[in-house]
Amino acid sequence: MRKTSDLIWQDAQHQVLFEILDLIGQPDSGSAVVLQLQQYAETHFTLEEQYMEMLSYPGIDAHRRAHDEFREEIATLPCADDFDVAFRQVVSTYLTEWLKRHVFGIDKELESFILESSFK
Q1: Hemerythrin-like domain location, by residue (predicted)?
Q2: pLDDT tens for each residue of 1-48
Q3: Angle between the 106-116 and 8-24 helix axes, to the nearest 10 degrees?
Q4: What is the maximum alpha-carbon separation in the chain?
Q5: What is the pTM (predicted TM-score) of this model?
Q6: How many other CB atoms sit within 10 Å of the CB of residue 56?
Q7: How many CB atoms lie within 10 A of CB 9?
């Protein structure tokens, strides 16, 4: 029997997202880090959405809406070069908490569904 931690690609990508969010909170981070977050999040979300489509995942609509919410949040960030230290921390903390709730909530449901399928 597989454990949920056996879905390595998803866990590894989540870890990268958390690392990028940590970088945003650093005093010397800039627009390049926000761009990196936008690009990596899009890559990760696209892969998850492809899996959901291949598997005819019943929760695809809600999951895609959650991804779209995160996409919208990071698309509205102002130029990170203008962030002060306090704002960097707020952005980093807010997005990290959002991602934690997503990963340990809706993503765990998807993970279980994927592990039960032949598309690991």
Answers
A1: 11-110
A2: 334 445 678 889 999 999 999 998 888 887 888 889 999 999 999 999
A3: 160
A4: 50
A5: 0.82
A6: 9
A7: 13
